[in-house]
From TrEMBL:
Pfam families xref list: Beta-prop_WDR36-Utp21_1st, Beta-prop_WDR36-Utp21_2nd, Utp21
Record-annotated WDR36/Utp21 C-terminal domain positions: 699-900
Name of protein: WD repeat-containing protein 36
Residues covered by the WDR36/Utp21 N-terminal domain: 33-297
Length: 903
């Protein structure tokens, strides 16, 4: 495992060769499409193609998908999984001994077929087998299954031998064997008409068959070969669509029995073709890693592309971060396209198009029409953000081509310029073997420096495409493998197969000779640089990595550890780490200051290109034979990591590539419930049971100080109430109410009003009243007196905790004799404080209440001997409770302060 990097997620995956499934989600009130991407599947909303959910990682690649209105079913090997909401395992069906190839939800049952043509009918809820129907692969190898509408308990089964049978799955009986076809049946699709189905064959024929009378109603033939999909419009038009294995779609008018139009929808085999119910919308997916929605709103009845999601249809060759935010990754692939992948949301992914010799002519063609002007794949590119609003900000070189192309990140398209020296243009060219090998754009965004296989190093203006300078004559005797320029456009550095690293003046008018040459021990493979630190990484063909300070022209570090050709390298944003990848399937991280290897991990496939984000939070990698871009999170930004030196010759531990979801949300089927057994008892056996309903006690230990859960506003400002009241004093005095005659009773308040209630006294009631109690106690005083009698002050403390600061101040001031209390009551209050200090509960409240008490009654305390003795008891309790904590806190602070001197 890696100490620094952790799997985050994969970008750029949309679909593969497994047909997608469409279902209506009542909760969202829209259709959703589920596509397969290797070991997991993902669900998109059809309204905006927004990614909704991603499933967990299966033990192996998914072999087929199906869905009903409740669950999504996926088959992996011989096991079938039922998923709720697309990411939560609900059922697991075990019973097949071979790989499951077909799934068909059928009411409360699920039908599955494996490679041995064993058909099983499962009870969807109990996960039990209802019935099994075996077939022989030699005579009837099942190739497709469907349920004809209105045919109760019956399914239609097609075979690779061309046979077609209808079975009653309730009794396991063959109802009828139809007249066979002389070709494999690839697809069976229900038409809007009852008893009529569409049959797609491997020889390109499409047959409309009436099941009730076993008669062929219509027969069509598409010239593109295998029929991979059939779908019928259900919005009132008699139209049928059929797809082929080369990305073509044909639209048929069933009334006139002819082709309406054709469409080149994808670059590869179409595996999903589905008209939306009662809508002029067509959904397609393909092996070219794309998902597309077509709408029929043209006057001629042909469709147009409504929305799409797509990634590379061939493996990426080079990836680089663009911009300082680190949210965009530029990727060039084998499909000759340049794409932008967003690390924030995949809805922001954009294709800049495919490289073309004549962009305007190619633009007039259909998006997917065969174009002979397409250029070879981009082998390398460079970009800068300085001038991207003014002119093209990306320059790319292509495999075995001498010209370089420009691209605009701001306009999201290919530029108009083709950068090429004059001697290589068509009317002057004599050497047809030379091609561009490396390039680098200057920091200002005005120039690009390009190296060629003939040894030349040329500089072009990016805005105009004009050739500005050449370095040397030539710069190297053989292939130029890398070029670089400094931050101030003063130095150009080039390295070649001739084992030389040369330094040139950026402005070549004064001298066209290199002012510095460094001899390497072997041929240079490529060059990577870090402008802010003036460091250059030079990778040699003998798997050696050199770090050079190009200001002093000295080799500052030398790293040896890879056992195969190094494919790419990059610096971390602070230039402290150098990360390299190799064909030995490893990625190594070298610490430049210490000159140690500090991290390494191995993957199943070699990394062909990598890039570190400008913020240092992610490492992006692209791998051989994989279509996606994989993100690895830098754990050192979020937690402390103890890094130690690693022996470069030691074996690296293997890590899996990131899944479509984040690593924290990864739902691994193998690890969960021993291949997903959803029994609570087995969950508890895997580890310690964690009670999520656990609540911490009010006091963990009586030796620890326990704070109350009150907000600071309840106790922190008790000593400052006088200042607060003075500050909040109104600027204008309150208006005094008008006085009524002494014999007329009035109601207290600001508004003048008479008391009209009947205040007549009872005749039996005496006019004379005697004081029954000498003390005029407040509510808190009464509760405090009762608490003293029971020796339980919890009610008194609880009452104070419910009061606001002003009332707390009033209650404590009222304890004195002048406030209606007594000396005895003040002693009882101090007893309550002693109780709080001894139990260490509500510690901050005890401190605050005691401070207010001392401030309010200092004169009374000094005049009374009994209160002085109580205060001495309070002092003992205070010292006893705080001293132990105080010593430990001071000790901890001292240790930490001392350790900082060694960090």
């Amino acid at each position: 495992m890696s100490r620094i990097f952790q799997q985050n997620r994969a970008l750029g995956y949309v679909s593969n060769q497994i047909p997608a499934t469409v279902r209506y989600v009542a909760g969202r009130k829209e259709n959703c499409v589920t596509t397969c991407v290797g070991k997991s599947f993902q669900t998109f909303s059809c309204s905006h193609f927004r990614l909704l959910t991603v499933s967990g990682l299966h033990p192996d690649d998914i072999s087929c998908l199906a869905s009903d209105k409740y669950l999504i079913y996926s088959a992996c090997g011989s096991i079938i999984y039922g998923w709720r909401r697309g990411n939560e395992i609900k059922h697991k069906y075990i019973g097949h001994n071979a790989k499951v190839t077909h799934l068909l939800p059928f009411g409360r049952h699920l039908i599955s077929v494996d490679e041995e043509s064993l058909l099983k009918v499962w009870d969807r809820m109990t996960e039990s087998i209802f019935i099994e129907i075996p077939f022989q692969n030699d005579s009837f190898k099942i190739s497709c299954v469907m349920h004809p509408l209105t045919y109760i308990n019956k399914i239609l089964i097609g075979s690779e031998q061309g046979g077609l049978q209808i079975w009653n799955i309730r009794h396991g009986k063959l109802i009828h064997a139809f007249c066979g076809f002389n070709s494999k049946i690839n697809i069976l699709e229900q038409s809007p008409a009852i008893d009529v189905i569409g049959v797609g064959l491997a020889n390109g024929k499409i047959i409309l068959l009436n099941l009730k009378v076993d008669r062929v109603l219509m027969e069509f033939t598409q010239e593109w070969g295998i029929v991979t999909g059939i779908s019928f419009r259900t919005d009132g038009l008699t139209m049928m669509a059929t797809s082929s294995n080369d990305g073509q779609i044909a639209f048929w008018d069933l009334e006139e029995k002819k082709v309406i139009s054709t469409l080149t929808a994808h670059h590869d085999c179409i595996n999903t073709l589905k008209f939306m119910p009662n809508e002029p919308l067509l959904l397609t997916t393909s092996e070219d890693n794309s998902l597309k929605f077509w709408i029929f709103d043209k006057l001629d009845g042909t469709p147009r592309l409504l929305r799409y999601r797509e990634g590379h249809s061939a493996s990426p060759l080079s990836i680089r971060y663009h911009g300082l935010k680190g949210d965009c990754i530029l990727s060039a692939g084998e499909d000759s396209s340049l794409r932008i992948f967003s690390t924030i949301s995949e809805t922001l992914n954009v294709s800049l198009g495919r490289a073309s010799y004549n962009r305007k002519a190619s633009k007039k063609l259909s998006k997917l029409q065969d174009d002979y002007r397409i250029m070879p794949p981009i082998s390398s590119f460079t970009s800068e953000t300085t001038r991207e609003k003014h002119w093209d900000s990306i320059v790319a070189i292509h495999r075995d081509l001498v010209e370089a192309t420009t691209w605009s990140f701001d306009k999201r398209k290919m530029g108009e310029l083709k950068l090429m020296p004059e001697r290589f243009k068509e009317n002057k060219r004599k050497d047809f073997k030379t091609f561009a090998t490396c390039l680098n754009m200057t920091h200002c965004g005005n120039f690009v420096i390009i190296g060629y296989s003939s040894g030349e190093v040329e500089r072009f203006n990016v805005q105009s495409g004009i050739h500005r300078a050449n370095y040397g004559n030539p710069a190297h005797t053989n292939d130029v493998r890398g070029v670089w320029s400094d931050n101030l456009n003063q130095v150009v550095i080039s390295g070649g197969v001739d084992c030389k690293l040369k330094f040139w003046n950026f402005k070549t008018k004064e001298s066209n000779n290199a002012f510095g040459v460094m001899k390497m021990q072997d041929s240079i493979l490529f060059i990577r640089g870090h402008r802010e630190s003036s460091m250059l990484c030079v990778v040699l063909e003998d798997f050696t990595i050199l770090v050079i300070d190009y200001d002093t022209k000295n080799i500052v570090r030398k790293f040896i550890g890879h056992t195969a050709p190094i494919t790419d390298a990059c610096f971390s944003p602070d230039s402290r780490w150098l990360i390299t990848s190799s064909m030995d399937c490893t990625i190594k991280t070298w610490d430049i200051p210490s000159s140690y290897l500090i991290d390494q991990f191995k993957m199943s496939q070699p990394c062909i290109s990598l890039a570190m984000s400008p913020s240092g939070d992610f490492l992006a990698t692209a791998h051989v034979n994989f279509l996606g871009i994989y993100l690895w999170a830098n754990k050192s930004l979020y937690e402390h990591i103890s890094l130690r030196s690693i022996d470069p010759t030691s074996e690296a531990k293997e890590m899996e590539l990131p899944n479509m979801m984040s690593y924290e949300q990864k739902y691994d089927i193998i690890d969960r419930l021993n291949l997903i057994k959803i029994e609570k008892e087995e969950e508890e056996e895997e580890g310690e049971y964690i009670n999520l309903d656990y609540k911490s006690p009010a006091q963990i230990d009586d030796k620890l100080i326990t704070m109350s859960k009150l907000s600071e506003a309840k106790w922190k400002n008790l000593l400052s109430l006088d200042i607060i009241k003075k500050r909040n004093k109104p600027k204008e005095a309150f208006k005094k109410a008008k006085q009524a005659p002494f014999f007329l009773p009035t109601v207290a308040g600001l508004e003048f009003a008479f008391d009209i209630e009947n205040n007549t006294q009872d005749e039996d009631h005496s006019r004379l009243k005697t004081a029954s109690v000498v003390e005029n106690l407040t509510t808190f005083g009464i509760i405090l007196k009762k608490s003293y009698e029971t020796n339980d002050y919890s009610n008194s403390i609880s009452h104070l905790m419910t009061l606001n600061p002003s009332l707390i101040d009033y209650e404590i001031r009222s304890l004195a004799p002048l406030g209606g209390g007594s000396i005895n009551l003040m002693e009882k209050f101090l007893d309550m404080i002693i109780e709080m200090l001894n139990t260490n509960i509500n510690f901050e409240l005890a401190q605050s209440y005691l401070a207010l008490f001392l401030k309010s009654h200092d004169e009374v305390i000094c005049e009374n001997r009994a209160l002085i003795e109580k205060i001495e008891e309070v002092e003992i309790a205070q010292n006893k409770g705080w001293s132990a904590i105080d010593e430990k806190l001071l000790y901890g602070i001292g240790v930490v302060s001392n350790l900082r001197n060694y960090c």
